[in-house]
């Protein structure tokens, strides 16, 4: 079986030079991944949404638990009031750091 029949990566030592850098071979151009500083990573409105969710999860939810009347389902207050903002914070963090 040859490397062209495999369809996956097959190590070929002849594609590397003396310094261990990959060279072009078999019509395969080598492309370096983009440097992280060239990516568009500004703190825009997505960042402010994540900051807002942090405020809700770490300030608003604990205050809501403290102000929750004990006779109106205190168990709900201890389980659900922190859970929903934490889940929304996690979703906002993933959404805010993912670029289309």
TrEMBL record:
UniProt key word Transmembrane: yes
Statement: the UniProt record of this protein carries the keyword Transmembrane helix: yes
Cited InterPro entries: DUF7977
Region described as Disordered: spans on this chain: 1-40
TM region positions: 48-68, 74-95
Pfam families with a match to the protein in the record: DUF7977
UniProt keywords, alphabetically: Membrane, Transmembrane, Transmembrane helix
Record protein name field: Uncharacterized protein
Lineage of origin: Archaea, Methanobacteriati, Methanobacteriota, Stenosarchaea group, Halobacteria
